[in-house]
Amino acid sequence: MATVCKFGGTSLATADNIRRCCGIVQSDEKRRFVVVSAPGKKHKTDRKITDLLHDCYLCRFDEHKFGETFGIIEKTFTDIAEIVPSFPIAQELATVRAQIRFSEANLDFVLSRGEYLNAKIVAAYLGYTFLDATAFIRFQGGELDMSATRALAQGLDKNGRYVIPGFYGADERRHIKTFSRGGSDITGSVVANVFGCELYENWTDVDGIYVSDPRAIENAKKVEQVSFRELREMSYMGASVLHAETLLPVYENPIPIVIKNSFAPEKKGTQILKKRTEVSDKETITCITGKNDYTCIQISKMMLDKQLGFVKKATAVFEEYHINISHTHSGLDNLCFFVERAQYVEISFENFLKVLSARIDADKIKGHEKIALLAVIGHNLSGKIGVLAKIFNALKNNRINVKTIYQSISECNIIIGVEDSQLSDGIKALYRDLIDGE
Ligand code: ASP
Questions:
Q1: DSSP label at 221?
Q2: Residue whose CB lies within 8 A of the most ligand 1 atoms, among 48, 52, 117, 235, for a mutation test
Q3: What is the spatial distance between Cα 142 and Cα 170, in angstroms, rounded to a whole number?
Q4: CATH number for the domain harbouring residue 365
Q5: What HEC string does 261-302 produce?
Q6: What separation in Å is there between the alpha carbon of 140 and the centre of ligand 1?
Q7: According to the model, what pLDDT value does residue 44 have?
Q8: 26 Cα–ligand 1 center, Å
Q9: Residue 88 CA to ligand 1 centre (angstroms)
Q10: Does residue 345 sit within a domain?
Q11: Do 289 and 196 belong together in one domain?
Q12: Domain identity same for 306 and 413
């Protein structure tokens, strides 16, 4: 049996950090699959290699600007490659430089080079085989194609020891295709799935998952266990834990994930399991988070409950403009759609309201903006008396007006709509009463 270890950008930002991560890999025989991110920030003010590569792509025709930015990338990799003196880093960098400047390389190819070079260096240091993700990770129509990926991985020796660059694969035409940003997390779960690993270790620069973002809440509590369902809700609602699509490849044949700190490997971390094993009959709150900049479209129609197909007609208009609906609430003669502001790309919010009014026979359509959604995520939330009372009390005591509330049937989340400007106060108030107050 094997473990896949994925190391994030900060864990691999310097030669010393890489040595530390390789030490972790070498300390357990089972760690046969290593997935790496591109080097991240060494200092707060630094820029990640992937961001610099993006800049290089944009200024590839401006020799001076390109030279300046690529110079930072060269310096980072040259410093890192010092861990393997025989590694031909100058040659590798010259190839990448020419590929960006003088070939038809597309943006995805350019963005992928950070992971590519880092994986080659780490493989050389560990004496593991470098396995390019293009050899087995396939995309079809822009999406990860798990069955093609599984079929390609069949042909690979599963007993080997590999270092695999995260974040990308290849499309139908064998061109490099990346996941969205932060996508090395997804590579980790794809590898876990196709190579039949028993555990996915996601090594980062924090001790695990916290109930609230420690940057916003001082001494936020760490969580020991989280269920897959809870993690999905957390990532969706803005908690920056793992990439929101990480779970898909490990969901069906559940492979446990553990989030660990590469700078403090002795700490226990947070386990992410299909089903929690530590369950109490008391409610457990695993996350208090939130996201702002939502819009809400409120549709009123008398006798809505008797209108067959009304919702379908309304959602068809959203679909036509590729607007993804985050949440829907419905009442007797009312329907509300919550949509992130960023979704209005093809049409503005104002114009969309006009189009919608023309297309559906509503009595009234009203648009609301600047809405934040607060989320309380956890276990047993709807099974216990008093959770909502505590939430409302906390918000009332802090003069936060609740605009809307939604409790999911899955029992694991409660979503509260408030004014955008009250998001951070709302998170703090809920944390104080629901976590500190316990
Ligand atoms: N390097 C990429 C990013 O910064 C992918 C990753 O690290 O997951 O988004």
A1: P
A2: 48
A3: 10
A4: 3.30.2130.10
A5: ECCCCCCCCEEEECCCCCCCCCCEEEEEEEEEEEEEEEEECC
A6: 21
A7: 87
A8: 24
A9: 24
A10: yes
A11: no
A12: yes
Cα(3) to ligand 1 centroid in Å equals: 21
Burial annotation 356-381 (CB, 10 A radius, 16+ → b, else e): beeebebeebeeeeebbbbbbbbbbb
Pocket residues: Cβ below 6 A from ligand 1? 9, 37-38, 48, 50, 114, 166-167, 181-184
Residue with the nearest Cα to atom 5 of ligand 1?
A: 182
Separation of 134 CA from ligand 1 center, angstroms? Answer: 17
In a domain, 252, yes or no: no
Whether residues 200 and 293 share a domain: the answer is no
Q: Residue 411's pLDDT is what? A: 66
Q: Are residues 199 and 50 in the same domain?
A: yes
> Where is 212: in which H helix or E strand?
none
Q: Which atom of ligand 1 is nearest to the CA of 9?
A: 7
- Are residue 34 and residue 183 in the same domain, yes or no? yes
CATH of the domain at 30: 3.40.1160.10
The total domain count for the chain is 2
Q: Identify which of 12, 49, 50 to mutate to test ligand 1's pocket (most ligand atoms within 8 A of the CB).
A: 50
CA distances from 124 to 1, 143, 162, 163 (A): 23, 31, 11, 9
Distance of alpha carbon 374 from alpha carbon 377, whole angstroms: 10
Nearest CA to ligand 1 atom 6: 182
Domain boundary residue among 205, 235, 253? 205
Q: Is 168 left (phi over 0), alpha (psi -120 to 50) or beta?
A: beta
CA of 112 to the centre of ligand 1 (A): 9
Whether residues 195 and 315 share a domain: the answer is: no
197 and 288, same domain (yes or no): no
The reply to whether 290 falls in a domain is yes
- Among 190, 205, 220, residue at a domain's last position: 205
> Tens of pLDDT along the chain (438 residues)?
899 999 999 999 999 999 999 999 999 999 999 999 999 999 989 999 999 999 999 999 999 999 999 999 999 999 999 999 999 999 999 999 999 998 878 999 999 999 999 999 999 999 999 999 999 999 999 999 999 999 999 999 999 999 999 999 999 999 999 999 999 999 999 999 999 999 999 999 999 999 998 888 988 999 999 999 899 888 888 787 899 899 999 988 899 999 999 999 999 999 999 988 877 666 688 899 999 999 999 999 998 878 888 899 999 999 999 999 998 888 888 899 999 999 999 999 999 999 999 999 899 999 999 999 999 998 877 767 788 888 999 999 999 999 888 877 666 889 999 999 999 999 999 999 989 876
**Are 39 and 49 contacting, i.e. CB atoms less than 8 angstroms apart?**
yes
Locate the ligand 1 atom nearest the alpha carbon of residue 37 and give its number. 7
Residue range of the domain that includes 358: 284-436
